[in-house]
Amino acid sequence: MQWWLDAKFGLFIHWGLYSMLAGEYKGRKTNNIAEWIIHDFQIPPKEYEHIAEQFDPKEFDAEKIVQLAKKAGMGYIVITSKHHEGFAMYDSACSDYTIVKSTSFGRDPIRELAQACQREGIRLGFYYSQAQDWYDENGYEQDADNEAKNFRKYLDEKCKPQLRELLTQYGPVALIWFDTPLIMTAEESKELRDLVKELQPECLVSGRIGSGLGDYASTGDNFIPLLPTKKPWEVPATLNHTWGFNKFDTAWKQPEAIVRNLIKIVSRGGNYLLNIGPDGLGRVPEESQRILEEVGDFMQGNAESIVGTKALPVYPYDLGWGYLTGRSGKVYIHVLEEKPMVQLLNIVSKMKKVYLLASGEELKFEQRETCEGDACWNIWWPNDDQKAARERLGAAGKVDMVICVEIEGEEVEFEPIDF
Ligand code: FHN
């Protein structure tokens, strides 16, 4: 799974029939995440079939989405192949409730995306809701009486056959992003894991397969761990509140916040899986595009401080103004705020060379002890002018000025603060 550990940043795509409703059904607005509308409003499956008949996302453009992910510096894409609504967003022979059979659109967007990803050299994984299925009478549903259902039948006749299709029809699959196991047993989760590994041994399995059987941990949605964890981990996160498109949700996190989250997550050794929700016509919301493009401006010059980095030992301070990332022999100081100069305390490693990552412009530095005897790094902006240095960096320095410090030795050494 080295590719996944190195990638650090991925694109999540929530797209399904719910995207067409856009957070509203029969004049009623949802106040929950929009892809839950069928559950929250208890829309009967028959009615949902009519919605499917009107689904015609003719503006879906797989190539454009892949380019957007690449421009943002993302290394992988994960798309909903079947969300809890039970609708297959690909050509599935196991069900008639699919984008190819139930809509006038008739195309297989998963195939289009798989082909675009292969052309552009970006890995593709599939989200698959393995337990919740609000269309199938034997699929589970949160807060429903699930005990009475024949889940074995659902597993054997829908879930496993569909996973088999996804893992045999679309070339190499980077990962299966399972979600909401609910009351699945450890044996059932293991059965799914075994199936994935039998069909594609390299394919990863997300933490939400259940019973701790994932190849990595998926944190709670939008929850960033405070400290590095033992198991590799990933934060699935939204750009606004919802995952599926909701025309009323305009609470967009701005590029500054996204870059800050990315650095924070990467500094603690995690991955950031950031979501877009295309609308009912298949279009990526303009705000999502703009935000990801600006994040891409940062990544353009600074990807080295993100991609392929490893969690450093825990630095004993919460800096407030920035974060540290690193790799063998290098520490990257992410400066997110105005600072006359940059100082790091209790850092023992010897500095060899210091420069702005995006431009290579060298910075004056000194290594000393403070009056209290703490090991200390001091770094100055050229002519003590951060603003001018930021301007010279252009778009790559707008949100974060990344300073690269080359050090002696491979791993940075911090000193304890309680000596
Ligand atoms: O219920 C889903 C939700 O719709 C969305 O898919 C997120 C993404 O992580 N997962 C579940 C809730 O945790």
Proportion of strand residues: 15-25%
Q: What is the spatial order of strands in the main beta sheet? A: 7-6-5-4-1-10-9-8
Structural class assignment: alpha/beta
Pattern of helices and strands: HEHEEHHHEHEHEHEEEHEHEEEEEEHE
Q: State the helical fraction.
A: 25-40%
3D structure, described in words:
It is a single chain. This protein is α/β, with parallel strands linked by helices and 419 residues long. The protein is built from eleven helices and 17 strands. It has helices at residues 2-7, 18-21, 37-40, 45-54, 62-71, 109-120, 151-169, 186-199, 255-267, 286-302, 386-393, and strands spanning 9-13, 24-25, 28-29, 76-82, 123-128, 175-178, 204-205, 217-218, 233-237, 271-276, 322-327, 330-335, 341-345, 351-356, 364-369, 375-380, 401-407. An eight-stranded parallel beta sheet has the order 7-6-5-4-1-10-9-8. The chain has a four-stranded antiparallel beta sheet with strand order 11-12-17-14. Bound molecules: ligand FHN.
